[in-house]
Specification:
Blueprint (H helix, E strand, L loop, with lengths): L2 E2 L11 H4 L4 E6 L3 E8 L8 E3 L3 E7 L3 E5 L4 E4 L12 E4 L2 E8 L5 E8 L2
Parallel strand pairs: 1-2
Antiparallel strand pairs: 2-3, 3-10, 4-9, 5-8, 5-10, 6-7, 6-9
């Protein structure tokens, strides 16, 4: 059962749920957190979107990706990471401004993001 009670809704014009709903699903939302199920299939590229809150990230499946800014400049290329995050690992990420993600690997990039609103 999804609980959606956005007492503090997203305010960014490029919010992930507005601009990239094919890649993000809200599992739970209230005034304190928003839990997103994020999936990017191999070869897919998300539309430009943003995440206005920091988030705890849980890796369900990993694939290499490139994150670009809205002008096409590379922000992150996971192929340069010293190690791949393991399935089941938890990571921390700050807010992310306008960007798009391209899955350049052969697996599904599947992340649960617990966005912290406070």
């Amino acid at each position: 059962m999804n609980v959606i009670d956005p007492a503090r809704p997203a305010t960014h014009a490029l919010d992930a749920m507005i601009e990239a709903p094919d890649h993000h699903a809200v599992l739970l939302e209230n005034g304190k957190v928003r839990v997103l199920d994020t999936r990017v299939e191999p070869g897919q590229r998300t539309p430009v979107h943003a995440h206005e809150w920091p988030a705890a990230l849980y890796v369900l499946s990993w694939s290499d990706f490139v994150r670009y800014d809205m002008h096409g400049n590379v922000l992150v290329d996971s192929r340069t990471f010293p190690a791949r995050p393991a399935v089941g690992s938890a990571l921390w990420g700050g807010p992310i401004g306008p960007h798009h993600v391209e899955n350049v690997g052969s697996e599904v990039l599947h992340i649960l993001a617990v966005e912290i609103k406070e």
